[in-house]
# Entry
Amino acid sequence: MRIDLKELRAYPGRPVRSEEQEVLDDLVWCDEPLPLVGAVRVIASAFYDEKRVFLTLNVSGTCVRRCSRCVLEFEEDFEREELLELELDDPSAPYIEIRPWIAAEVRLAVSPRPLCRDDCRGLCAGCGADLNVEEHREGCVEDSPPHDPRLEKLRELL
# Structure
């Protein structure tokens, strides 16, 4: 997606709005691919002022993620809006390519610790059971909380 600087320079201070669908195939987040479901919806509004461009960028879409607790694959919706101030290196440039900022906004919009649902119980560290589907497996040591001798006096009081 590009912002036409010729149009912005012609009317300084007047915002120019653009709405497009941007396909980002090679997006990576935290060294893992971030597969998007379809294109990212981008609404960009920009205006020019003394060798600077002020860009309001709104990105929204859906991506495929893995739950950080149970490792289940699910679709996560995202949306983010930010105001960016861009210094122009070449004031005579015909356009600004904003695809890198779109990709950055998508990375910032997705959850750092994705959950398939708010009450996800995850996987048991002892037996590997998916606690959303089944209880601890027989003989699992994680089923009962560990005994801490420092709390023995408190246990006597209760």
